[in-house]
């Protein structure tokens, strides 16, 4: 059961992009969406220009007396559930084995964090995202203007449809000249794991663990592919913002959106949560590992350390042929400083009775 938590309720919309991966027909092949590592210059001492994100809670605690527009959260009861799958769509991602996992009750935001919400946050805190500090972010080439395209220097070898674009950030989602003013209710894009972390802390929240995220995705159903069941399109309806057509060349946008969609455009799952799959990938707090056992686990938080963080849910760029990752058990990863035009987040919070 769930109860709605009383938080400021705002209607928000989102935009985001998905990273797709070649998986299904060629199971050995990877999509490349997990290889979007930022080429880091030797910028170790570069603290002054950017923000000190080491102690975000302290630094951004001045939200008192400022009107914030946080998402409504849903209280989930937690309990035992089956995490992962024994019938993995993409075995090399560590989707299996299926195992019994316990999660304590927790809150989770009902939709992905929107541009409007993130703008409010930056207006109040003057937070500068990693993409802004590094000066670039990954954008799906199909979304770039000819101008921006002609200025590109290189693409990602494993996924040529991704380009690091100078000047791409959450306000300029397709690089210089693009804007989000017409999509304030779409999910925020080009936020790194660290950025997402700072936002959630500022909001008095935190990122969900992978287990919490997957529990939330499943909506109380057991051993199903999607948040609503096993059929991708019940009664012929689209239940998520995904890619229809021929990836990466032609998106028919049969679901109404070739890019991100406003949040809450597709039906909620039984927990009242929107866009758990599709629209944008969502960061979780766990480090990435593909090794899991069948052992029961209580409130698992992932490995102690790692180099990549887990993201869940797939995005508007996911098509079965390349990125069959719009399933609750599916998972992928990026380095914590990565950002892209199909990657966002939502926050969670502890339940303290
Ligand atoms: C952020 O600040 C800008 C400039 O003052 C303003 O136009 C915008 O409405 C603010 N956004 C939010 C969500 O408060
Ligand atoms: Ca779509
Ligand atoms: Ca999503």
TrEMBL record:
<feature type="domain" description="Sulfatase-modifying factor enzyme-like">
    <location>
        <begin position="71"/>
        <end position="348"/>
    </location>
</feature>
<dbReference type="InterPro" id="IPR016187">
    <property type="entry name" value="CTDL_fold"/>
</dbReference>
<protein>
    <recommendedName>
        <fullName>Sulfatase-modifying factor enzyme-like domain-containing protein</fullName>
    </recommendedName>
</protein>
<keyword id="KW-0732">Signal</keyword>
<dbReference type="Pfam" id="PF03781">
    <property type="entry name" value="FGE-sulfatase"/>
</dbReference>
<dbReference type="InterPro" id="IPR005532">
    <property type="entry name" value="SUMF_dom"/>
</dbReference>
<dbReference type="InterPro" id="IPR042095">
    <property type="entry name" value="SUMF_sf"/>
</dbReference>
<dbReference type="InterPro" id="IPR051043">
    <property type="entry name" value="Sulfatase_Mod_Factor_Kinase"/>
</dbReference>
<feature type="signal peptide">
    <location>
        <begin position="1"/>
        <end position="20"/>
    </location>
</feature>
<dbReference type="GO" id="GO:0120147">
    <property type="term" value="F:formylglycine-generating oxidase activity"/>
</dbReference>
<dbReference type="GO" id="GO:0005788">
    <property type="term" value="C:endoplasmic reticulum lumen"/>
</dbReference>
<comment type="similarity">
    <text>Belongs to the sulfatase-modifying factor family.</text>
</comment>
């Amino acid at each position: 059961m769930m109860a709605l938590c009383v938080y400021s309720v705002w209607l928000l919309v989102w935009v985001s992009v998905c990273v797709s991966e070649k998986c299904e027909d060629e199971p050995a092949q990877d999509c490349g969406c997990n290889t979007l590592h930022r080429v880091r210059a030797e910028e170790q001492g570069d603290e002054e220009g950017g923000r000190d994100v080491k102690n975000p809670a302290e630094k951004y605690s001045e939200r008192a007396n400022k009107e914030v527009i946080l998402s409504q959260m849903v209280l989930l009861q937690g309990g035992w559930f089956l995490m992962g799958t024994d019938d993995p769509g993409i075995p090399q991602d560590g989707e299996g084995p299926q195992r019994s996992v316990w999660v304590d009750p927790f809150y989770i935001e009902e939709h992905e964090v929107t541009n409007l919400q993130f703008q409010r946050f930056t207006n109040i805190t003057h937070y500068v995202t990693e993409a802004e500090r590094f000066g670039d972010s990954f954008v799906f080439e199909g979304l770039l203007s000819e101008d921006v395209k002609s200025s590109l220097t290189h693409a990602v070898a494993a996924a040529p449809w991704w380009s690091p674009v100078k000047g791409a950030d959450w306000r300029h989602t397709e690089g210089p000249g693009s804007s989000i003013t017409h999509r304030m209710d779409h999910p925020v894009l080009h936020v790194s794991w660290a950025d997402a972390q700072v936002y959630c802390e500022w909001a008095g929240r935190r990122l969900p663990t992978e287990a919490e995220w997957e529990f939330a995705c499943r909506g109380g159903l057991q051993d199903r592919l999607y948040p609503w069941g096993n059929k991708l399109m019940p009664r012929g309806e689209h239940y998520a913002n995904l890619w229809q057509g021929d990836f990466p060349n032609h998106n028919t946008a049969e679901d109404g959106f070739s890019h991100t969609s406003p949040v809450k455009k597709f039906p909620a799952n039984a927990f009242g949560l929107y866009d758990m799959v599709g629209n944008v990938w969502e960061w979780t707090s766990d480090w990435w590992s593909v090794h899991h056992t069948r052992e029961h686990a209580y409130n698992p938080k992932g490995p102690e350390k790692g180099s990549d963080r887990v993201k869940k849910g797939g995005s508007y760029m996911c098509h079965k042929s390349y990125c069959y990752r719009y399933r609750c058990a599916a998972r992928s990863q990026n380095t914590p400083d990565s950002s892209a035009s199909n990657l966002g987040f939502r926050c969670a919070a502890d339940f303290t009775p």
